From TrEMBL:
Species name: freshwater metagenome
GO BP terms, alphabetized: threonine biosynthetic process
EC number(s) per entry: 4.2.3.1
Identification of the protein by name: Threonine synthase
Pathway note: Amino-acid biosynthesis; L-threonine biosynthesis; L-threonine from L-aspartate: step 5/5
Length: 363
């Protein structure tokens, strides 16, 4: 009645899906966990909130390790293995290390990760441990970790997989291709959170390539948002001691500074900053009104978009895509606090149906 079973279409990861558009060839060993192919989720409640025609969330928490980093890591680790590397190293606020550790495990090589002491979330740390990375907590911030990772990879036999490695940006540009494939056009505005600005630069690269081959008619405006205590692009210079609860983007000296400035200028985009409070408000809005659970830093783009609409920018008639970069389970503690910051503990009840119905307000 339902016909013969047919082979289900299986997404094959970004290198296989976009092979001809990436810097790879037949000799490149493809290390993949099936990354990419993430949902573009309609966000009518957010469109209404900001007065736009249509808003979509590119839900990057749906990648194998729960963040967009997997797109760049499949490329970086594949190329590293292709070059004969036996070990990779990265500095990380957490997601890069989780991804590097997983792809290194899949490749059967060693991973070394340098993280700022006490400043990465439990979910991310557990991933690096699970995938058997050699983890060192550095007495410094992310920027110090990156300096150290660059130094080690320059002088010792270990391959750097931070986004200063162009293979990372190359892999991450596939997210823009997917947006265009899904919409059949480019958005008017693309919004995302910014730390090192690797992803901001990568989306722009993807859109620029789509523009060159006429898959889109114009370049989307790139809007990048940072946390107020960690906003070097807004300040116009590096921030020495960045601070924000959004630990993923607690970065004061962005590695992709120049690329990001070019992307902002050529796309007629902008950078902005939002407070931790605004980030947490949007974090809750996305999970409660749209069913999309992200880590706080991932709500920064949407929070910036909302702030822009509140302060007078009109999005009437606009088609907007907002990238939400990492999954809520990476850092679940923020969902377990109410607006005043108090712990939320579900009520305990007996097994009596009448009593439970009454507690639920059903009786
Ligand atoms: C969820 O993992 O830098 O602007 O070391 O984890 O490309 O740096 C993470 C960054 C946004 C910012 N959202 O992206 C790391 C790291 C999440 C992130 C960013 C990060 P970039």
């Amino acid at each position: 009645m339902f016909g013969k079973p047919k082979k289900a279409h299986q997404w094959r990861g970004v290198i296989n899906e976009y092979f001809s558009r990436l810097d790879v060839d037949k000799s490149t060993p493809i290390i993949t966990l099936g990354e990419g192919g993430t949902p573009l989720v309609p966000a009518p409640a957010l469109a209404k909130l900001v007065g736009a025609d249509r808003v979509y969330l590119k839900f990057e928490g749906m990648n194998p390790t729960g963040s967009f980093k997997d797109r760049g890591m499949t490329m970086a680790v594949s190329k590293a293995v292709g070059h004969g590397a036996r070990a990779v190293i990265c500095a990380s606020t957490g997601n890069t290390s989780a991804s590097a550790a997983a792809y290194a495990a899949a490749a059967g090589i060693k991973s070394v990760v340098l993280v700022p002491e006490g400043k990465i979330t439990l979910g991310k740390l557990s991933q690096a441990v699970a995938h058997k990375a050699q983890i060192l907590q550095v007495q410094g911030n992310f920027d110090d970790c990156l300096t150290l990772a660059r130094d080690l990879s320059d002088n010792y036999p270990v391959h750097l997989v931070n986004s200063v490695n162009p293979d990372r940006i190359e892999g991450q540009k596939t997210a823009a291709f997917e947006v265009v494939d899904a919409l059949g056009q480019g958005p008017d505005i693309h919004v995302l959170p910014v730390g090192n600005a690797g992803n901001y630069s990568a989306y722009f690269k993807g859109y620029q390539e789509d523009f060159k081959v006429r898959r889109i008619k114009k370049l989307p405006k790139m809007y990048g948002y940072q946390a107020e205590g960690s906003a070097p692009f807004v300040q116009g210079s590096p921030v020495k001691n960045p601070e924000t609860i959004a630990t993923a983007i607690r970065i004061g000296n962005p590695a992709s500074w120049d690329l990001a400035q070019i992307a902002r200028e050529k796309s007629q985009g902008k950078f902005g900053a939002v407070s931790d409070k605004e980030i947490l408000w949007m974090h809750r809005f996305l999970s409660q009104e749209l069913g999309v659970f992200v880590e706080p830093s991932s709500a920064t783009g949407a929070a910036g978009l909302y702030k822009a609409s509140k302060t007078g920018e009109s999005f009437a008639g606009a088609l907007i895509v907002v990238t939400v970069t990492g999954h809520g389970l990476k850092d679940p503690m923020w969902a377990l606090k109410d607006e005043a910051g108090n712990e939320i503990t579900p009520e305990a009840v007996s097994t009596n149906a009448a009593e439970v119905a009454e507690r639920l307000g059903l009786a």
